Backbone:
């Protein structure tokens, strides 16, 4: 279902992947610095989630400024929260690369304020860009260290923007419940020599779905 989500004086293009049964949880998903919501990994993940009963709303926001991307992500979360068509108990925010930085920033902002109503259940970071290529001294970890809700990282062990040891160090300092799933030998774009893109995507999708399912159930215990 295609929708246009109001954002300031314009609209963000978005698509709902809707499960057959009425969903109680959703995932909001966005792309990296290049591309848009039709990036194959996002489409694949959205289809997988919807087929397992989780609503997925993916959107396009082209700005390369992280503050702008964060604002757009917030607008999408608000839109979903107020939606009459889908009454959700909670959402997970997810993004790829720069999109995961924006998602982390939104989670931090929305869960630190007094208006934290528990609507945001967790954060999924696909290829989180912890540093620029070859610039390991400047880590983009400030939001991660302040987040309290569960976080899943899915990263390639050969990601040139997320050195394995550095991410593990940051994660060890995080107060939130967290998990890292390494895609062996994958680069930042999740390409692995000798494996098809579909094969890698299946691995990512399975990880994300099972983690979302676990974290939904934990909240209900």
Residues:
């Amino acid at each position: 279902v295609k929708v246009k989500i109001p954002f300031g004086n314009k609209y963000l293009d978005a698509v709902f992947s809707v499960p057959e049964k009425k969903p109680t949880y959703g995932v909001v998903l966005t792309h990296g610095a290049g591309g848009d919501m039709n990036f194959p990994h996002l489409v694949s993940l959205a289809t997988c989630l919807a087929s397992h009963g989780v609503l997925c709303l993916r959107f396009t926001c082209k700005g390369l400024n992280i503050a702008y991307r964060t604002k757009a992500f917030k607008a999408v979360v608000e839109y979903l929260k107020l939606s009459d068509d889908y009454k959700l108990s909670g959402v997970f925010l997810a993004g790829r690369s720069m999109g995961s930085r924006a998602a982390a920033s939104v989670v931090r902002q929305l869960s630190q304020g007094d208006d934290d109503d528990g609507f945001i259940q967790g954060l999924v970071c696909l290829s989180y860009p912890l540093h620029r290529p070859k610039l390991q001294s400047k880590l983009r970890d400030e939001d991660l260290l302040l987040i309290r809700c569960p976080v899943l990282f899915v990263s390639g062990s050969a990601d040139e923007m997320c050195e394995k040891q550095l991410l593990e160090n940051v994660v060890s300092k995080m107060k939130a419940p967290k998990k890292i799933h390494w895609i062996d030998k994958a680069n930042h774009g999740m390409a692995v020599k000798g494996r098809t893109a579909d094969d890698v995507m299946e691995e990512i999708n399975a990880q994300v779905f099972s983690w979302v399912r676990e974290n939904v159930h934990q909240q209900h215990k």
